[in-house]
Sequence to fold (116 residues):
Amino acid sequence: MEYVYAALILHETGEEINEDNLTGVLEAAGADVEESRVKALVAALEDVDIEEAVEQAAAVPAGGAGGAAAAEAEADETEAEEAEEEADEEEAEEADEGGDDEDEGDGGEGLGELFG
Fold:
């Protein structure tokens, strides 16, 4: 989620959401930056109107009756999260194929990263 938050910070400050800027925000926050996740998020957000998605998400009533606007905003967020997950899976496959002897644990690393 920190990658999505970094993209929102860049959007809010009027900065371009690109790999360099996203990496800079993440590094400034002290996050471990994975280049493939940065690339995946930038690609996923390329055709997303963030302002519109934020407005639609903010317009959702508290009772949960969000309709199409909430579904579209959720779809945009889901697309970004799926791109991150794909990047994680690719990294895991590359690590398995690379023969790296470092023990990364029992495979729960990806799940732990989802929750910070």
User: Anything to note?
Assistant: DSSP finds six helices and no strands in the chain.
